[in-house]
Amino acid sequence: xxxxxxxxxxxxxxxxxxxxxxxxxxxxxxxxxxxxxxxxxxxxxxxxxxxxxxxxxxxxxxxxxxxxxxxxxxxxxxxxxxxxxxxxxxxxxxxxxxxxxxxxxxxxxxxxxxxxxxxxxxxxxxxxxxxxxxxxxxxxxxxxxxxxxxxxxxxxxxxxxxxxxxxxxxxxxxxxxxxxxxxxxxxxxxxxxxxxxxxxxxxxxxxxxxxxxxxxxxxxxxxxxxxxxxxxxxxxxxxxxxxxxxxxxxxxxxxxxxxxxxxxxxxxxxxxxxxxxxxxxxxxxxxxxxxxxxxxxxxxxxxxxxxxxxxxxxxxxxxxxxxxxxxxxxxxxxxxxxxxxxxxxxxxxxxxxxxxxxxxxxxxxxxxxxxxxxxxxxxxxxxxxxxxxxxxxxxxxxxxxxxxxxxxxxxxxxxxxxxxxxxxxxxxxxxxxxxxxxxxxxxxxxxxxxxxxxxxxxxxxxxxxxxxxxxxxxxxxxxxxxxxxxxxxxxxxxxxxxxxxxxxxxxxxxxxxxxxxx
Length: 518
What we know:
By secondary structure, the chain is an alpha/beta fold. The chain has helices at about 5-20, 25-30, 35-45, 105-120, 135-145, 155-165, 180-185, 205-210, 215-220, 225-230, 240-250, 290-300, 345-360, 375-380, 385-395, 410-415, 440-445, 450-455, 455-470, 475-480, 490-505; strands at about 50-55, 60, 70-75, 75-85, 85-95, 125-130, 170-180, 190-195, 200, 235, 305, 315-320, 325-330, 365-370, 400-410, 425-430, 435, 485. Strands 1, 4, 5, 6, 7, 8, 9 and 10 form an eight-stranded mixed β-sheet that branches. Strands 11, 12, 13, 14, 15, 16, 17 and 18 form an eight-stranded mixed β-sheet that branches. Strands 2-3 form a two-stranded antiparallel sheet.
């Protein structure tokens, strides 16, 4: 006598579970250009590394003799696997089973995935399609009652959805139509990616139509909407590209806040000096330049990983390495509002600085900021309030900070180029230019009577501007030590690598005094 009958039943149940929603639903998934849930997990993780938990959980049907007749699996698949040899937790929606809705959800699986990541200090990747276990109007009938959102048993799931942001890296992948709770789970991440054929919304087109808005999925929540609003960080053409982006993002971060970011072997000369930096900033301050080549030049070659490129575009943010050490990089982009801080840019800065503080990443800020964006639209967007939030986030950080002032530093936003109240490193390029406010417009206000009284007002304006520009030389500022060091721009990479070396012993693992705000 052995346990073969039970083993046979286990294998039968496993086989039924792996059918997912059945051949027709699987074919429909493939016809839509989307992989099935376990195909996705297989492509995301290292080969043969996935250990699934709760495979046979679902809704079973039995005959009159109590024998198993059929099994509809849960529409959530989760377990542990490896990415580049590091263990991670993966929880993924199976859209072939009731479209990912609550009717087919066993909530304990999603909850256990979040708990496992939290308590074993493992990164978690959420692969989301559908409502992510959220509700459906059919749920009322199938369960015979309506659920109170966040009621007993629900609050703990919501707790871990956001609490994990302060403990472990969280990646969200939106790979289909993502709505309701699924949209919240995608947004509650440190890094989110959607495919360009996907869509995300709080409520989909049929619900929004009741408001008189007749919109298709892409019109309502397509990738251009969501990346430009900042709800999603990145969009890819294929699911494979989304998996690659997730893997690369995680490579810069520790498994949890209780470790330090992983240092890789240095492959780029820390003393490298790029001649391009000597002429990249135009002498004419009205002319713009491309900042991304500057970033690429000063960090380890090929290491810059940009995040949120379509949102808050006057600030470029991303992760990079200096001599193999991960750092968080912010850089002003004069192609958008001259590098001025918009309301969106301020929101982007808050989220990014929180990420750096949470996972012990030193910050490098390549600065060219003429101040906060001004004008009626900026006032309507409460730019100053969001700007103060960004300043506060910067001031709350404890990680080492280094600022390179490439050109402009003006006004209140200019003052927020480093954390207040503690020492940080700061260097100014030869092209640096700063003050309480730019001369343009300020001269007319301060010298109005003198200009109006002159025989040639335009010539008088030019005379005053030339005089003040000479006084505004960065060398005069350096005389009083208001700026510590003016450098040849070609020294930037060696100095930043030196900063990363100085910062390394100061990084301390552990919980931040505040959790990242999504």
